[in-house]
Write a structure and sequence with these properties.
2 domains; Rossmann fold; alpha/beta; BD-FAE-like_dom; single chain; Alpha/beta hydrolase; two-stranded antiparallel ribbon; 388 residues; transmembrane helix
Length: 388
Amino acid sequence: MAKSLKIFAYALLSLFGLAAIGSLIPAIPMLGELGPVVTSRFGPWVTLISILGAVWLFLRWRRNRHKRTGVVASLAAIAALGFGYVQIQQIAVARANGISIDLAQALLATSQSAANPKPETMIYAAYDGQHLPLDIYRPKPGSNAAPILVYVHGGGWGGQSLKQREADYRWFVARGYLVISIEYSLSTATRHTWNVVEPQLGCALAWVGANAGRYGGDVSRLALWGESAGGNLVLNLSYRASAGTLEPSCAGTVPHIAATLALYPVVDPARMYRPVDPLLGVFGRMMGDHYTGGSPETFPDRYTAIASATHINAKAPPTLLIIPESDHLVDPQAAYAFEAQARAAGIPTRLIKMPYAEHAFDLGSGSIGNQLVRQSMLRFLDDHGMTP
């Protein structure tokens, strides 16, 4: 048993060392993806474990002088220094943006999970024989109507669900927001929904505009929030709504959108089709094929229609973009170029770059990345008239 534990410890600490190298040098194949994932998933724990492991192995090496022990001790030390440096840099970015990171909370970070308050589910439309639901999370009753935060999930337009970030919904509800999470028709290999989803979501927003008041919401203060493919959708929805080109698939009027919050959005789906990383490129191409029916070369007009830059206009709402700098699925450079175009068009924008972070870096509830995202969104909403 003791031998098995020793082998496991050696393997784990070696893996941590290699992952830390990948965090610092994201261009290394596979390790460049693994490192940021390990950092965001395990947070400060990975640094503490690496420090303890390095000390333990160094003491063992002093006694036995085994080459293998020395190599693993070196990898553990690299892990401790590398992960520690990465997390210090991420905390520094948070502080530069006026955000305080609670390390005790980060140590207790968990994956997103369902929690109270439980949602009220309503059906806003139907498509292809399927009901389209939305979940409503009410804040505690107060004297004033609550600002509304509408969430559109990611998943490459073909996965995940409206319950994707329930722990985050609860966090915002506790701070006085009415949170509404919307489902839409997911794409498949045989069902291409590139021209279906945005009108559907326009219908959902019209439903919110007509009904949110019954749930304590203030429709004059409504923001959209989404990540990845959902980030693409909320940008397109809000920008098209401001330009008057969003036509809901049902009767009703899309309400004014006061702010847009997009986390690592797919602003340029054609660019995701030719991604930074060959391994994740398989997923990028599959998502594009399923959503549009083919490649950018086959359907250039479809990719132009769903590209967020196509819809930039001076009336678009203030926009927050949070971008992980080591994203191997969605090229960060596309988001930087989009932000520059939006700013040049007169759209109030804020861009936060999270160093050494991968796609979906914030999904551990209470993690360093998650704290940065939640608090950055909250500050942005406050700055744009959406204080509860």
